[in-house]
Amino acid sequence: MLKIQKKQGLTHKQEVILRISTIMIALIAAGLIMAVLGYNPFTMYSKLIKGALGSKYNFTSTITKCIPLLILSLGVSIAFKMKFWNIGAEGQFYMGAFGATWVWLALPDLPAIVMLPLMLLTALVFGGIWALIPALLKHKLGTSETLVTLMMNYIAIKWVTYLQYGPWKDPAEKNMPKIFKFTENSTLPKLFGVHIGWIIALVLVVLIYVMMKYTKFGFEISVLGENAQTARYAGMNVTRTLILAVLLSGGICGLAGVIQATGNEGRLAADISAGLGFTAIITAWLAKLSAPMILVTSFLFAVLLQGGAYLQVAMQIPASVSGVIQGIILFFVLASEFFTNYKIVVCKPEVND
Known about the structure:
By secondary structure, this protein is mostly helical. 72% of the residues lie in helices and 4% in strands.
């Protein structure tokens, strides 16, 4: 009989060795799958790296993909630290972008120096409110935040789809329904070939790291995540901490939405996320909710995404093959997380006399 037991804890050196070994095994396994499918794994890997980092254009494309993923991961990490399972980053992403677009459509003539901060602030508020709804339902009615945040993703996406095909449809777009394209005063400027969302993302990494490690509010979030009763006995205002943390979590996810819409896509659309809100859950968890490590995992995932897209063009491989490579690597990395904390032991069956 097999039994899962929690490990006492690995040393830092053991964890590093385990993770590196897992990645190597994942690359070998993905290479074997590619060989079975008739592709040279060495060529595939070299093309993947080239597609992500091999030129200035490819590198900037990787950074562009990393920015929203990083910000979304930072947002969900705050809620996860409190053990509030915010699976609604996708919906908060769209509602943030919606709020910012609404401001632009309502006040189209504002100068950029006023318009952009106002759009970012609005996205922060709209994303935060969208996350607050399931938090209040959980606090007042005891509902599952996992289910409510998940379902609210689809409400947000369908709302944006309605706007795209209805009230906000640009009459100038003849072939495909699209929302009005942002004008210059509502588009994020570029720095070093990438929109300035990368600066916002790096600032957020620093701010969230400092908040979680050195502030009273960050300490309260951590304690509440460990044990709500302990937090109450310590005199903490659990309700206040819950509401503020969820507002911040959703608000940051909303920021990712407006940054993606104004910096990369050029307009709000029903497909601007491409599932990044769900990917962010994985990157945040793999980074153990640490802001600096989230930066690393988000960049590595962006390399996989951009490199996989390049493979489809450069080698004319189906998108499904690229997805298989990413899935295999992800599976092994997640397995390493399991074996870092648990072990499987063989138990002798009990013999009845």
